[in-house]
Design goal:
Oligomer: single chain
Strand order of the largest sheet: 19-20-21-22-23-34-31-30-28-29
Low-confidence stretches: 1-81, 87-115
Helix content: 10-25%
Number of strands: 34
Number of helices: 10
Shape: globular
Distance between the termini: 38 Å
CATH topology of one domain: Beta-galactosidase, Chain A, domain 5
Mean pLDDT: 87
Largest sheet: 10 strands, antiparallel
Strand content: 35-45%
Radius of gyration: 27 Å
């Protein structure tokens, strides 16, 4: 491609396809003065979207984008709607290029269906029309002014009783849960809007001292406000930075640590950390503005103070990962084609998915992102229930550096920000391969206007290796079956980190949940000769601190019905004696977890611990209660001290398993409002009631952690790491349910 060409969509803006940047990989600046000069010299006038050839198995093109636009350059910030629209613009461009590469070979298709009134269901997320209607009703009935922020507008999920009364094809109740915040008074309200009658069912004030999550547009407004602050600009000049447009400002939730200044208590605070780009497309995380922290009130968008812990020179090297900066791609990678000429094996009706005896519904919320409803497996002539609902409930990322300027670094990425609202538009051939079905997600911006996140959720089949195999050496008889799995997933970009959340359904009745971690590590600068004590030097004078990613998944089981119980299973070896005369004996020992406090448990690799959810009222052919087992994967305890401030708000992380009596109001592991919560809430508080959890409607909470000890190979962008857990049938079926899988189809 020579010069600049343009692609025009029927309704969208033009995209400029540009030649590669002349920037050399590994370009660096060794002195602060040179950095400032280079910043001024390299500034570009406008944001641009460009394509370049990339090393992809399908031989296509992927996209690079200059992330700075004119609004940001002029200090206005980027609105939440603008953020979403730019994401959709990039996704549309990427989809076009990937589709061109794939459709030419017939390797991949985007399978889409159109929802209709006949396929609507009570668990379906709100439509754009319903979001608009909910906001209209709230504004009309409760006199909500234009300055108020709509933090979330989401489906008020139907109750168990409403679902029992539901009949397909008949009208059903429909309601929206709305969270509105008034920056003027600082007061927030939770409301339920009846969308059928256009009335407000409830309108409750959020208790004083609790803060809703930070919205996307508050991030952008915070950045603009910080860049206007005289104190912050003075800190920049002190370090030789004269162009604030090249400064990245990340708004970190302020948390609660017991040392808050009296005049700041009760305010909606963030602690803004900053990084400096060498030019608009540069990776600012390579050059932390170390030790400069702006404390800002989000209600007033005023900087209350700037803490300056002293000048630390910028690290000398660039850390660029975008395509225009990368070396020439490898030349020896041949195409790997994934084709399904007869179409996929799954069927999608509205938001219901049917595949290989599985049946479930795809939901989505601005806070949790992807939600699964009503997960069932077809066994003979019965659709057998396994899960009522499943979602990622909360996560926290504590950092381990105790320095004054760092110890407040931690993030509750779900409760403080909302990963659903930060979902990426996924791209055929880049994010998902094969014959793909996408689901859009509909959220609201903070003014209550609906915003559609195109292709937020991806559904596709994957080859998963060998499903089962055996060879009889005596007679030569051999059978083998290939495994196929169905994956439903979404990705969210939360600041520097990117998270992929995947539910994998297998033909043997098992479910795997997998989190994929990638993106860019949070960084700090090192003084010349400094050796980090609580991190790893990943590039010259660039430190990545030790940290953990701790996830809490909420599982609402319904194993052959709502009356379930949980057993903990440990392997034990009896002491030598009459029961173990040769010392070789070991057995599985199951313990019933009868009450909530007894069900606060941790993983134990030394005993191969797992947990089994059973239905005592339903038996298999052997007379055993049917069940599913939860099998842990990678895990660790939190490494902060028990009295650390972050653990007061993240009390859920103190155990790996919690079992609670079902309560529809208990949705989030750290409570509804972890942002600046003064004492902490959620699982430790709820389970203190010590309710019985045997043969009843219960909820299983599994908490798992990845401990990140950084390495140079994680820079400048991390190869994907993954962790998660399995749900496997344990006496649920009478035999291997995958015996009827056909031999491989070639």
């Amino acid at each position: 491609m020579r010069g600049s060409e343009t692609l025009r969509g029927e309704t969208g803006p033009s995209l400029s396809i540009l030649p590669l940047s002349a920037e050399r990989p590994g370009a660096s600046l060794s002195r602060t003065a040179r950095l400032s000069d280079t910043i001024a010299a390299r500034a570009r006038p406008t944001a641009q979207v460009s394509f370049r050839p990339a090393a992809r198995g399908f031989g296509g093109r992927c996209l690079t984008m200059d992330p700075v636009d004119q609004n940001q350059r002029e200090g206005r910030g980027l609105s939440r709607r603008g953020f979403f629209e730019r994401s959709s613009l990039v996704a549309s461009a990427m989809t076009a290029m990937c589709a061109l590469a794939h459709d030419a070979r017939g390797a991949e298709r985007d399978e889409t269906t159109v929802d209709s009134d006949q396929t609507r269901h009570p668990f379906d997320p709100l439509t754009p029309h319903e979001i608009t209607e909910a906001v209209r009703v709230i504004r009309a009935v409760k006199s909500v002014g234009p300055a108020c922020r709509f933090i979330t507008v989401a489906l008020a999920e139907p109750s168990r009783a409403e679902m029992r009364a539901y009949r397909p094809g008949e009208p059903f109740p429909r309601a929206a849960a709305v969270l509105v915040m008034d920056p003027g008074s600082g007061q927030s309200h939770e409301g339920i809007v009846d969308l059928r009658s256009g009335t407000v069912r409830s309108w409750d004030a959020v208790p004083q001292g609790l803060q809703p999550s930070v919205t996307v547009d508050e991030f952008a407004e915070c950045e603009a406000a910080v860049k206007r602050s005289p104190e912050f600009l003075a800190a920049l000049r002190k370090r030789g930075i004269d162009d604030p447009s090249l400064v990245m400002v990340d708004a970190w939730s302020a948390g609660t640590y017991g040392d808050e200044k009296p005049e700041e208590i009760g305010k909606r605070l963030v602690r803004a950390l900053a990084f400096v780009r060498a030019e608009p497309g540069d990776n600012g995380y390579a050059r932390p503005l170390d030790g400069v922290i702006a404390v800002l009130d989000l209600h007033t968008m005023k900087v209350l103070r700037v803490d300056d812990h002293g000048v630390v020179p910028f690290p000398p090297d660039a850390g660029n990962w975008a395509g225009a900066y990368l070396p020439a791609p490898r030349k020896d990678l041949k195409p790997l084609l994934i084709t399904q000429p007869d179409g996929p094996s799954f069927t999608v009706v509205g938001r219901e998915v049917l595949w290989q005896k599985w049946r479930f519904r795809v939901g989505f919320t601005p806070r949790e992102g992807l939600v699964l409803h009503d997960v069932r497996y077809r066994d003979g002539d019965r659709d057998r229930s396994i899960l009522h609902r499943a979602s990622v409930s909360e996560m926290v990322v504590p950092y381990g550096d105790p320095a004054e300027k760092y110890f407040r670094k931690n993030a509750f990425d779900i409760g403080e920000y909302g990963i659903g609202a930060m979902a990426n538009p996924l791209v055929l051939g880049c994010d998902c391969l094969g014959t793909v079905r996408y689901f859009d997600a509909h959220v609201s911006d903070s003014r209550g206007r609906p915003v559609t996140l195109k292709n937020a959720v991806c559904l596709h089949e994957e080859d998963a290796g060998v499903l089962w195999k055996h060879t009889d050496w005596r007679n030569g008889q051999s059978e083998v079956r290939r495994a196929r799995r169905l994956s439903v997933s979404f990705f969210a970009a939360v600041g520097n980190y990117d998270y992929g959340f995947f539910w994998h359904f297998s033909q043997d009745g098992s479910i795997q949940f997998e989190v994929k971690l990638t993106g860019i590590m949070n960084t700090s600068a090192l003084s010349p000769g400094e050796v980090p004590g609580y991190g790893v030097e990943i590039a010259p004078r660039l430190n990545a601190p030790f940290h953990q990613h701790i996830f809490a998944v909420r599982l609402d089981p319904g194993v052959d019905g709502p009356a379930n119980a949980v057993y903990e299973v440990n392997m034990v070896s009896p002491r030598r004696g009459p029961d173990n005369p040769h010392g070789n004996a070991f057995r599985a020992e199951a313990t019933l977890l009868a009450r909530e406090t007894a069900a606060r448990r941790r993983v134990n690799g030394a005993t191969s611990r797992f947990w089994r959810v059973v239905n005592h009222g339903q038996k298999n052919r052997l007379g055993q209660p049917v069940g599913y087992r939860l099998v842990p994967g990678e895990n660790a305890p939190p490494f902060v001290q028990p009295d650390a401030a972050v653990l007061k708000r993240a009390g859920f992380a103190t155990n790996h398993l919690w079992v609670t009596a079902y309560d529809p109001k208990q949705r989030y592991a750290a409570g509804d409002y972890p942002n600046q919560h003064p004492t902490g809430a959620g699982l430790p508080v709820w389970t203190a009631a010590d309710r019985p959890v045997v043969d009843t409607d219960l909820v299983l909470w599994y908490v798992f952690a990845h401990t990140h000890v950084p390495r140079p190979e994680d820079w400048p962008v991390m190869p994907v790491g993954s962790l998660g857990f399995w749900l496997k049938p344990d006496g649920f079926f009478d035999r291997n349910p995958a015996l009827d899988v056909p031999a491989s189809l070639i």
